[in-house]
Write a structure and sequence with these properties.
4-stranded mixed β-sheet, globular, 10 helices, single chain
């Protein structure tokens, strides 16, 4: 069976909420998980859309909705005052870690979400992100050198472009058996699709 692909931007409030549930949901469904951060701006350049936090009216509603969902689920939710950050450093760090220690990649992504949405991590800062990796037995200096490599930068750029070419345009966005589901509020529908074989 194919894995559940979980596509997201680290600065997405709804992706943060999805990240709290997706591993347990995948386990319930008997599926493996593929965590796939990408830069949502790559999709916006194709769709012409703007992020919720950059769109009048939607911005205020989204912040209220995120906080409401977090309270309902008992989660701490305190995004930075200057949210959203362009999380390129965190995204590159994820793929650098995945290439060396794939067993740590999902836990790293979850930690980035948890720290960013409690206003304790600047996901745009390579130095700030590097200070996180000793928790995973990795060297900050090695990560800083790795994410500065042209090959890693190109890899991350291509991952985003390939995602958009496959029809991925939002965060969170899920693919399972090539069926697309966009949004945190589609997770239960996705689960039902897998359980029933679709409709």
């Amino acid at each position: 069976m194919s894995p559940i692909e979980f596509w997201f931007d680290f600065s997405s409030g709804y992706a943060f909420l999805a990240a709290q549930r997706i591993e347990a949901l995948a386990a319930e469904l008997g599926r493996s998980m593929l965590w796939r951060p990408y830069m949502l701006g790559t999709a916006f350049s194709v769709t012409g859309a703007r992020g919720l936090s950059s769109t009048p009216l939607k911005r205020d509603y989204a912040r209220r909705d995120w906080a409401r969902i977090a309270r309902h689920q008992g989660l701490t939710f305190r995004p930075p005052a200057d949210h959203p950050h362009i999380a390129l450093a965190a995204t590159r760090a994820f793929y650098w870690i995945e290439a060396r220690r794939p067993d740590l990649a999902a836990a790293f992504a979850q930690r980035v979400f948890d720290l960013y949405f409690t206003d304790r991590l600047d996901t745009a800062s390579a130095e700030a992100v590097s200070r996180l990796v000793p928790e995973f037995g990795l060297e900050p200096e090695a990560l800083l050198a790795g994410i500065a490599e042209p090959a890693l930068k190109e890899k991350v750029r291509k991952i985003g472009e390939d995602a958009v070419a496959r029809g991925i345009f939002g965060s969170p966005f899920f693919l399972v058996d090539e069926e697309p589901f966009w949004g945190w509020d589609r997770m239960e529908m996705m689960a039902e699709w897998v359980r029933t074989g679709g409709w």
